[in-house]
Amino acid sequence: MAKKASARKSGARKASARKASTRKAGTPRASTRKAGAARGARRGLALPRDGRAAYAELQRGVRTLERSIDEIRKALRRAERRIQEDARRRIRDLRKDANAQLKMLETRRKEAVATVNKLRAAAGASWQDVRKTAEEMLADARATASTIVERFRGVLRT
Question: What pTM did the predictor assign?
């Protein structure tokens, strides 16, 4: 009798070994309990009518919230693009303005050099007049330059 029982057990082992060999290595055996639970999850919970209505309303709210989040993200991207475009435009305008101001200052510098050379030739011994005229021109150029610098600093602060 003991021989028959052990033969049955070894036969059962062989059958389970054959089943295990058909599965992929490392995959667990599916139990009937887990499969039943999975089927129940697919069917959904047995809820009363008002519970299902409340659940459906919550799902609609979640979908609405997801759409709102997507709209906000799109609006943020649009706003970011607008801000970047505006910044690029402002930078172009500032560069144009700065180049124009620099050209004006360069012109004044050339005029000052030319005036100093003319005065030096004409003044002879009266260097006081030459110096006074040159200082006035340089003070005017410095004031213009500092005004330009302050204006650009103010733009950068905003």
Answer: 0.46
